[in-house]
Amino acid sequence: MHKRTAKFLATFLISTSVNALIESEFVQSLLVNNIFFEKEQINLTIKKIEMDGDKLSYADWDWTVGGELGRISKHKNKEDYTSSTDYAKSTTQDVRKISTDITKKFFSNGSELKISYDKSLPVKDEEMYDKNGYQTDKNTTEYLDDASISWTLPLLKNKGGVVDQKTYDLAVLDYEDERLVLSEVKEDFIEEKLTIFLDWINYHTQIDIVKNRLKASKGILKTIQAQNTNKTSVLTMRRSINKSQRLLLDLESKLKAEQKSLNAVLPSVNLDANPLKINWGARVGLIQDLHQYCKESIRDIKRIEIEQLKNKRSVKAYQNSTLADFDFTISATQDDNKGNYSTYSKSSEVEYEAKLEFSYPLTGDVTNDVYLRKYRLKGRQLELKYQDKLDDIVSDAQKLTTELKQGVKQLDLYQQQINENSPDNIKAELDEFLSGNGNIRFVINEQDEQQSLLLEQVGSAINYHKNRIKYNSLMDRLLINAI
């Protein structure tokens, strides 16, 4: 539509006022005031909590503390005892023990660190016997301190934490998918409401056109009544006015319906004080390389790509799980022991160890193999899904592109017809009628033709802008362009 056309249409809108609500402001109001998106926003927050929780549960420190209190009683009797070595025939032992263990997995390489410490204070009362009979009771008090530290690094299965970290990696992708879902929900909602926005403007503009027609028709009626023309002409003019009034009532009814729909989503906006306004001359920027654009920018394509990444991540984990357990471990342990019998004793032992551990089930893991085959097949399924979705979106975009181009041509033709069908034609026919050389029907026909052209032009313009909204929504740039 030429600038002249846009300016021409704008004259029929009250929304040219300073307080008019333009398209971008309408969208902003929906995004700020509407709670429609709250559910999806909560889903996104839940995904974030789950994602962070998965990482913390994997790599967080795990610290446990335990204690033990107990009493142990033993009685032992040796038959045919001839050895001179004494033995404890009866033992009573009080056990007091405290222990703590700390473990941590490292997210970067899948290794695991373990630290433990045990302290115990057992007290023993023993009755000792030998071949000569009863000996004096011996009391034993021992203090035991055991500390150890070990670090294990997987070299084959779970190397780099590929198996253990799967849950977190999938949670990260789920979170990204949920972000796309939220954007898609917002854009679908905005597209739906912008359609109502355009319908409101459509009926509002048509009402102004019909009102202008009625005003002109009533003026003509007064003129011909003042000229004392025949009653047939007056009756014909009144019938034309009645027809316009019926059309006006129908349009006003449709406008009220659209206004109720808008009030439902924007109850705080007064459309009488803040009528809607559109830039009639706005044109959509058509994309030249649709295939490349869709691969880079379309959310539905990105979501399938996320599905593919999740599938590949699962395949990677199941592939790794088919390998043998082959771990490298280094550890250090210190045991301190001090106690007393008839004399005081103390000992300390330190042990260092480095080892490689290997194990592999000769029968394999049937469940793991089943899932591996499943996700490999699913990978091909997702490739086909990706291509089908890409082809569908490109096809829809090409259809809309054709409609948009044709829409511009159609608007240019309407403007050409309007320019040729000047309002002066109505005045000329009226002058002819008043001079007695014409017929009032010619005047009404000129009015009908002008009104029809204007209404059709508005309908064509609204249809173009609806296609513009559809195109931008299909290309996932409706919110970007609108805001």
Description:
Helix content is 57%, strand content 22%. A hairpin with a 6-residue loop joins strand 3 and strand 4 (112-120). The protein has helices at 3-10, 23-33, 38-59, 166-226, 231-265, 290-297, 299-321, 366-420, 424-434, 440-474, 478-482; strands at residues 21-22, 62-75, 87-105, 112-120, 123-130, 133-134, 138-154, 276-277, 325-340, 344-359. The two termini are 23 Å apart. It is rod-shaped and about 160 Å long. The chain contains eleven helices and ten strands. It has 483 residues and is α+β, with helices and mostly antiparallel strands. The protein folds into two domains: 3-49 and 168-312 and 375-482, Outer membrane efflux proteins (OEP), CATH 1.20.1600.10; 64-158 and 327-364, no CATH class. The strands form two sheets. Strands 2, 3, 4, 5, 6, 7, 9 and 10 form an eight-stranded antiparallel β-sheet that branches. A two-stranded parallel ribbon has the order 1-8.
